[in-house]
Amino acid sequence: MAIGILKIKRKGKMTFWERIYIPEILRGIAITSCHFFINLLGFIPHILFNNERKIFTLYYPEERVKYPDAYRGRPVLVLGDNGVEKCVACGLCEKMCPALCISIQPGETKLSKERYPEGFTIDQARCIVCGFCEEVCPKEAILMSQDIEIANYNRKEILYKKEDLLVPEKDLRMRQGFVRGAFARWKY
Amino acid sequence: MEILAFYILGVGAVVTAIVTVIHRNPVASALHLILTMVFLAGIFVLLNAHFMAVIQIMVYAGAIMVLFVFVIMLLNLQGEKWPPMTWKKLLVSFIGILLVGYCVIKIPGIFKGSILPMATQVTEDFGTTKVVGRRLFTDFLLPFEVTSILLLSAIIGAVILAKMKINKG
Amino acid sequence: MNLIIDLTKILFIFTLTMGVFAPILGWVERKQSALMQDRIGANRADIFGFTLIGLFHPLADAIKLITKEDFIPQGANKIMHTIAPFISLVPPLIAFAVIPFGGEYIINGRKISLVIADLDVGLLYIFAFASLAIYGPVIAGWASNNNWSLLGALRASAQMISYEVAMGLTVIGVFMVYGSLKLTEIGAGQEEFFKWGIFLQPLGFFMFLTSALAENKRIPFDVAEGESEIVAGYFLEYSGMKFIMFYMAEYIEIITISGIVTTLFFGGWHIPFISTNALISFFSLLLGDTLANIITMIIHIGVFFTKVIFFIWLQMTIRWTVPRFRYDQIMKLGWKILLPLSLLNILVTGIVILLT
């Protein structure tokens, strides 16, 4: 979609009708009270004709909004289909992180990837959810999830260990696809 | 009942008036002055002058004192300290107390023999808005109008003072 | 006996304003704004799973605010800081004493007038206490030892003083039309539908409502609070019980304004086209005189409070519809528009009365 500039004509002077102010206020009140009465009695057409109600509010913990794929929640580690995390502990994300919230202790492994993270902690209290770690990761091993409920009562519990971070790959397919599509343009 | 109310209101008015004078914090003084006004309004009510009472609260307590309080608040005056006592001041205040005391002692003596005129001709509608208004616009029309002209000139003076541009340099 | 009747009336009004209206208006405000903006509004507080469309929220709020820490900032004047909420709460409550919520009824041969104090000065009494209401914000703002608070107090008092003048002058037309300051007589004068104040004083109604809203410092005129400019104005440094008292004062003032508007301009306790005598004689055919009077009394109280509730609704709607005025606009409206217009209103009313 092309981005255009919309020019809004602003009237320099108000007409006399607008300057009396009372009729315009009455018009405003008419609009808002229309909404009020429609919503107050809104359950009647809702029941009779099965109409959709105009109210946009969601009952949050029970109902949730589906976020778009581009949405960045807390970063998580991808657990491959074979039950091993994809991360090779290269340390790029640790270097890249502007908030210095990632710390990795690498270790050696007999697997073909040879290196693996012995410890991988993200201090979610410091994380600014920028997504640089995801962008820099050569293995698609760290992805931004849709999880935003990170509130907690103490700071110890918000320091996520490796066990807290691992998420099976099949839950992250959508984000994986989005990342591939988005970063393909830059031809890494 | 009425006597009791009168004594409560009267003592209240006197006490708050005294506090107004001797309190160190100027804002508290001003607020006590408002209380004095309210007590005076109560005494007006006892005298069956409801209109006067309401006007007392509305004009003095509600309008004029607000400006007083405001000026004091914006100047942000702190609590005053008692000035150091000197012999001269002590002497002056001693004489002052003596004179006031003499007056207070003498006041009952003045009224002792005389019979004060009692308000006997009070009619049923005494102190009502209608009667006050009628008196104001018939018997006291000239003073009323003169007062209003005085107030008008005061308003105009205030507007001119507020509009005046101060020349710098 | 008279004392008992008086005490009953006081108790009735007191429980109705402090006990029923003031807490529920908080819920009404949230719920109505939600409905006006296509939201749902408060509905989470529950007792054993019953939410009752959020009606437990006032209770929850009250418990929360009572148990909150009562904070007095450093350098504040403790006594003034404590009495300021009371000073702002009392005047609107007392002002309700002269508002009649019904006419006169003869029950068991005793004349009962449904007004707490039928003063000769009537409405002037309300104005007197409305003018005392200024001290609440002023003392609160000054005693908090906070610059924002002082600014809020300054704005509040300047606004209230200016609109008091306009408000006093707008109702003079009503006094002239009904020939009395007594609210009972003004109410009784509006028995016929086309003698309601709104028909005789239409300009007066709009101007009175405007200046009454400004007196109450609610949204089109809420520069005294102005949370986007001066944080919360004069009650910035208040918390807990004292904070809720400022809100209670605001809500009670809404009720008082509605009561005054109903009595002055909307026929008080009268039902359109049905006179009190017709009502009493209709019921006395069936039930006898005393019972007929009692039923009429109850109907009139119901009608009066229905009208009051309508004006509460109107004030809430205005509050959630109109944006805030700038400070200079408020002053301009008060001094340059409402004051001359109300003087003009008095002049025109006088000429019309003189000619007819």
Please give a structural write-up.
The complex is a heterotrimer of chains A (188), B (169) and C (356). Chain A is an alpha+beta fold. Helices cover 30% and strands 15% of the residues of chain A. Chain A is built from seven helices and six strands, in the order αααβαββαββαβα. Chain A has helices at residues 16-20, 22-40, 43-48, 92-96, 132-136, 162-165, 173-184; strands at 75-79, 102-108, 115-123, 142-144, 159-160, 166-168. In chain A, strand 2 and strand 3 form a beta hairpin. The longest helix of chain A is centred in the first third of the chain and has 19 residues, at 22-40. Chain A is elongated and about 80 Å long. Helix content of chain B is 76%, strand content 0%. Chain B has helices spanning 2-22, 26-46, 50-75, 87-113, 129-138, 141-163. In chain B, helix 1 runs antiparallel to helix 2 (26-46) and helix 2 packs antiparallel against helix 3 (50-75). Chain B is extended. By secondary structure, chain C is mainly alpha-helical. Chain C is 68% helix and 2% strand. In chain C, helix 6 packs antiparallel against helix 10 and helix 7 (172-178) packs parallel to helix 15 (327-355). The longest helix of chain C has 35 residues, at 2-36. Chain C is globular. The N and C termini of chain C lie far apart (45 Å). The mean pLDDT of chain C is 83. The chains are: A alpha+beta (188), B mainly alpha (169), C mainly alpha (356).
CATH architecture of the largest domain in chain A: 2-Layer Sandwich
Low-confidence stretches of chain A: none
Strand order of the largest sheet of chain A: 4-1-6
User: Would you count the extended β strands of chain A for me?
Assistant: 6
The major sheet of chain B is characterized as: none
Strand fraction of chain B equals under 5%
How much of the residues of chain A is beta strand, in percent? 15-25%
**Averaged pLDDT of chain B:** 82
> What is the count of structural domains of chain B?
2
The CATH topology of the largest domain in chain B is what?
Four Helix Bundle (Hemerythrin (Met), subunit A)
Question: How far apart lie the N and C ends of chain A?
Answer: 26 Å
**Helical stretch tally of chain B:** 6
